[in-house]
Amino acid sequence: MAAARPKPSRPVQVDVLIQHIRGRKDSARSRVIILLNGCSSHSGRRTFITRLGRVIPLAGGSLRDVQLLARHRSLVTTERYIDGDSHAQRKLVALL
């Protein structure tokens, strides 16, 4: 069973934009775009790459594998997407 997701510490503001296709306001063909404040088009990509970077040792992989999955030309680019974790850093230092 999957673990329950923690609730956000503050409410997330959601804006909804209804975009009509071909500029016709009465068109039956329209799409709803949900805009989450504080999110960018790359925030999902950053989260995905960060999570891969954290679990890749469990699969016996390396950051090079994350780079290939992210389709980055350079490992330096991939490294920029991976967020640091101060708790994990403390645990690493404690292992010394």
Topology (elements, then pairings):
Elements: E1 14-20, E2 30-36, H1 43-55, H2 63-70, H3 75-81, H4 86-94
Antiparallel strand pairs: 1-2
Describe this structure in words.
With 96 residues, this protein is of the alpha+beta class. The protein has a domain at 43-85. The chain has helices at 43-55, 63-70, 75-81, 86-94, and strands at 14-20, 30-36. A two-stranded antiparallel sheet has the order 1-2. Helix 2 crosses helix 3. The two termini are 35 Å apart.
What would you say about this model in short?
This protein is an alpha+beta fold. The protein contains four helices and two strands; from the N terminus they run E-E-H-H-H-H.
Binned, the helix content reads 25-40%
Write the element-wise H/E pattern from the N-terminal end onward: EEHHHH
* Radius of gyration computed on alpha carbons: 19 Å
Strand content: 5-15%
The helix count comes to 4
Q: Based on CA inertia axes, which overall geometry fits? A: globular
Q: Give the N-terminus to C-terminus distance in angstroms.
A: 35 Å
Biggest pleated sheet: 2 strands, antiparallel
SSE class? alpha+beta
Calculate the mean pLDDT score and round it: 74
Number of strands: 2
- What spatial order of strands do you see in the largest sheet? 1-2
